[in-house]
Amino acid sequence: LELPFTCDEQLTRRMRLRFQSLQQRNMRPQDGERLLRPNEQIYRVDFIQQHQLRFLRWNVQLETPGKVTVTGTSQLWTPDLTHLMNRQLLEPVGIFWKKPGAEEVECNEADAQEFGERIAELAQIRKVMYFLLTFSGGLEPAQLKGSIVF
């Protein structure tokens, strides 16, 4: 079973508006609130099956050299009612990178394995899971194809 990461444009836009609104009113975020940076996007995974999932592997393809950090959120996040808080971000994170001239995407395999197993556990109580993806090293969201294989 392969479940793709889908960019949640509406949620990303809403979080960017929150940041702009705070700036325009010269206000500070709430204590512990996590604001979206320009190089970050919100993605989601919809679980079409929730039980008996056993994490097998990540399928991350990067068209160009760069790095993407995938951070999961710990709650069934309802963005219209709550803001993203630092305490909602899961550890470990998945870090995937591609070096110039390389064909293969690399990752810290121990963290990626533990993160994948944690997602399989969380899928038992959720139909959707949200992720914060941070792009660096010149990588853009359009250059990423990613999924989780169970």
UniProtKB/TrEMBL annotation:
<dbReference type="InterPro" id="IPR036727">
    <property type="entry name" value="Olfactory_marker_sf"/>
</dbReference>
<dbReference type="GO" id="GO:0007165">
    <property type="term" value="P:signal transduction"/>
</dbReference>
<protein>
    <submittedName>
        <fullName>OMP protein</fullName>
    </submittedName>
</protein>
<dbReference type="GO" id="GO:0007608">
    <property type="term" value="P:sensory perception of smell"/>
</dbReference>
<dbReference type="Pfam" id="PF06554">
    <property type="entry name" value="Olfactory_mark"/>
</dbReference>
<dbReference type="InterPro" id="IPR009103">
    <property type="entry name" value="Olfactory_marker"/>
</dbReference>
